[in-house]
Fold these 4 entries.
Entry 1:
Amino acid sequence: MRRILPYPWLAIAFLVLWLLLVESVSTGSLLIGAVLGAAGAGVLAALGLPRQRLGRLRPIPGLLADVIVEIVRSNNAV
C-alpha cells in the first residue's frame, strides 16, 4: 500500500481541503480531490524526504498558550 499511496494521511488531508474549498461533495469534486491528493502525496514521495518522527511533545502546550495569548493581545489592540 505504501508504494501506491506513500503518504495516505496527506492525501486524505488534500481531499478534505479540496472539498472544503469547493463547498460541494459531488462526484466530480470527490474525483478531482482524490486525484489531487494522490498527486500531492506522489510529489512528496518523489522529493525523497526522510520520514520524520515526532520528537518531544512536552513544549507544545506552552507554545499553544503563547499563541493564544498573542492572539488575544492582538485582538484587544485593534
Entry 2:
Amino acid sequence: MTTKPTRLIRLPELLSRAAISKSRFYQAINPKHPKYDERAPHPVKMGSTVAFVESEVEEWLQTLVQRGRQPTADSKEAA
C-alpha cells in the first residue's frame, strides 16, 4: 500500500492559489471574526514558522469554488 506524502506549503503559496489577501485569509481562520470559515486550513507550527497542509488547502479551495458557483437569491429573482 502506498501513501501520498504530506506536502506543506507556506503562506505566500496559499495566498497565491486562493487569490486572496493575507488579511482576508487571517479573517477566515479567526473564529471571532464575522468572516470566519470553519473549513479554512489552519497553520501547522514548525518552530518559528508556519505552513499549511496542501491537501487541506486544496479541499478548502474546492469549497470556495462550489460556494461561488451556487446561485444566490438575487440571481434567482433576476431570472
Entry 3:
Amino acid sequence: MSNDSPQHALAKSLEVLIDTTTLDPKGWIEYPEYGFRQYFLWKNPATGASIALLEYEKGGRIRHHIDPDATCRGVTST
C-alpha cells in the first residue's frame, strides 16, 4: 500500500467500516419499543466495557439517561 493510496488514508483515520450484512443475524438484540437494535462487537466482562453497533429505524430513540456515577468521574451533564 503506497502512502498516497486511499487505503492508506483510511487506515490513518482510525475509521472502521463494518458491512453489517456479514454479521450473524442472531447476534442482534431488538428493542422495538425504542425503534433500534444493538449488536455487540466486543465486551469485557471484567469491566463492563463494550463496543456495539446501534441501528435505528426512522424515529428510533434512546431515552435520556444520567449516569449516577458521572459526577464521581468529573463528568457533568447539561
Entry 4:
Amino acid sequence: MTKLAFVIPTWKRPEHLTRCVDSIAQQVKEGDGVLIHIVQDGDLQPTTDAIAALQARWPIVKTTRIEHVDYAVAFRAMF
C-alpha cells in the first residue's frame, strides 16, 4: 500500500532528475509504502536512459510518459 507518493514531472533535465530521485530513495526502505512517480514530459533519449537506470536501481520508481505539455498536465497524469 502506498502511504506517500512523490510525483516528479521532468523535461530535459536528466542530471537533476537523477539527483532528486537518488536523494529521496536513499532515505526510505523498500516496504515503507513510498512511491516515486516520474512523469516524463515528452523528452527524448537522455531522460529515458536516466529513468531506466533509476528504475533498475530503485524498485520504488514508476514512470508515465506523456507528450510535451505544461507542468499542470504533467502533474495530473499520475492521478
